[in-house]
């Protein structure tokens, strides 16, 4: 039996940490919310193992949410467009594909700016195409909100995984989707809602903040506001599990999250991260899993 898995590559994706994250799942999940859905590794894992009656996913990246929406509602049309892109890509030389990439990146940005449509199947297909052919699968925008990640010289990327897209479409049928601030999930979240929160990570150094996921940043101020949100939904009776970077990787005396989440359970787990431009600095680092499952508010 085929199991749906993320249809885009995502920096900080949780596929390799799923085994540790699963240990924190409640025994029963009838209502599920993911306010920062990203690539959706945990989403697809939860939906494949449980049958929640109500599901809400959200992300500030409206292009990402548009892509989820098109996979859900217009999968066959999306497959047609992606298949055409894949066939052309396979037939071209590397230099032709490099030029093709920048042509499609320009078209993607033009759709974003000129049409400003929330729902657009071409934009969704280009989102997946660019994700598979850009450097490290990054999603980064400039101050004007335009996608600006360069070409990665991939020789034969799988641009259209037909079987997985169809499985994703099936499993997303009952999922409500929103684009915007995580705070708009507040009204959905109630008692016994399982909420997985995977926000933009706190940078371990000045140079490690390599992406601008949106034109709005996510500073320590936003991390503190997120903690307040987690406390608020915890008081509503939600089961909360959150991920973040471990500042102690860079400074053993940095107690930012240990102090911020002193009322929560904090577990350190290890993941390999391949984003650093210096290959010698890539490898296993600890990350935080922050949970209220053992906490009474």
TrEMBL record:
Query: Keywords assigned by UniProt?
Result: Methyltransferase, S-adenosyl-L-methionine, Transferase
- Provide any one GO MF term from the record: site-specific DNA-methyltransferase (adenine-specific) activity
Which residues participate in S-adenosyl-L-methionine binding?
A: 10, 14, 59, 198
List GO BP terms, alphabetically.
DNA restriction-modification system; methylation; mismatch repair
Reactions catalysed? a 2'-deoxyadenosine in DNA + S-adenosyl-L-methionine = an N(6)-methyl-2'-deoxyadenosine in DNA + S-adenosyl-L-homocysteine + H(+)
Q: What is its EC number?
A: 2.1.1.72
Domain of life here?
Bacteria
InterPro entries associated with the record: Ade_MeTrfase_dom_2, DNA_methylase_N6_adenine_CS, M_m6A_EcoRV, MeTrfase_D12, SAM-dependent_MTases_sf
Protein family membership: Belongs to the N(4)/N(6)-methyltransferase family.
- The protein's name is Site-specific DNA-methyltransferase (adenine-specific)
Q: Which organism is it from?
A: Treponema saccharophilum DSM 2985
